[in-house]
Amino acid sequence: xxxxxxxxxxxxxxxxxxxxxxxQDSNNKITVAAKHMPGDYDIEYTSPWAGANYLPVGQEDHxxxxxxxxxxxxxxxxxxxxxxxxxxxxxxxxYNRKKDQDSTTGKWFAELIKPNPWYNKVVPxxxxxxxxxLADGIDNANSFTSVCINTxxxxxxxxxxxxxxxxxxxxxxxxxxxxxxxxxxxxKKADIVVNCTGLSxxxxxxxxxxxxxxxxxxxxxxxxxxxxxATISGTDDGExxxxxxxxxxxxxxxxxxxxxxxxxxxxxxxxxxxIRIMKRCIELCPSLVGVGQGIEGLSIIRHGxxxxxxxxxxxxxxxxxxxxxxxxxxxxxxxxxYQTSFGSATEAVELVKQALQNGKRAKL
Length: 364
Prior knowledge:
CATH superfamily: D-Amino Acid Oxidase, subunit A, domain 2
Pfam families: DAO (PF01266)
Domain FAD dependent oxidoreductase: 6-351
Order of helices and strands: EHEHEHHEEHEHEEEEEEHEEEH
CATH class: Alpha Beta
Low-confidence stretches: none
Largest sheet: 9 strands, mixed
Mean pLDDT: 96
Number of helices: 8
Structural class: alpha/beta
Enzyme class: oxidoreductase
Number of strands: 15
Binding site for D-dopa: 244, 335
Distance between the termini: 14 Å
Helix content: 25-40%
Strand content: 25-35%
GO cellular component, one term: peroxisomal matrix
């Protein structure tokens, strides 16, 4: 049987997860081609900057919610049985203020912070926090067991899983999607190109998806460990600012965030925003620092900025015929790439299979 030559364009969490699942079929010969690889820190490369965690934001009957539901068992399994992947469980609390519901952050978190959300049957130890346990100004809250991912370990782990299955990695910069088909390590033209270029699909020739825009996230990474993950529906500092705290596994530090600034391309941390973030996180979770301490009690590792690949119509997962090869698109996952990664990659793999079958029928 002839092998299927596949090029996966992009090495973020979506590209690597898709390549890993594709590589489970030994008949697929895969090259991952990317400008940036795990270990790089660049504003164009979103995945290393992510928190990353599992806080569902999609509606249950929509694709995002379905992908989140499908992804949880994989993350749970890795946290339980694969310590080298860099994922651990965290007790999590999500607070809601009704006054935030019309803000950018409130809309982003709408599914996460509603009472009795769909994911209460997915994650372990879900509990609605009684009203008499809530601070003034909090309308409802829940707690459950989630996971947090050390991206500096998890992305290389995905590479390792791909390598075990024979996937070849190469650096490449392409101006047009058609150039990717020539990057297969066999030197033959690829049968399929899987486009996982995230925000770069906005400028990639042959794609140029102008419905993509950045949702700028700014974080502060600290050594302090509050002992839990926490978030709230909004802030009083700005409608596109956010407050969330999560500790990455295996000494990866604690992420303090954040922001959700649409169409903001600035790669440089804003010092004033950083101060607001730190103050908000301490207010939300005083155990971050010692009693009576403010931001001087934080041990800062670094400041960071990432550009989430937000697509106005939601992620694009579909196949498209280009000349004599197929393209399967899998991009536009905004701020939920990790928590939808297995679900959306599984759907992309199915489209690859369909495209390969169509191609073989056409040759007959």
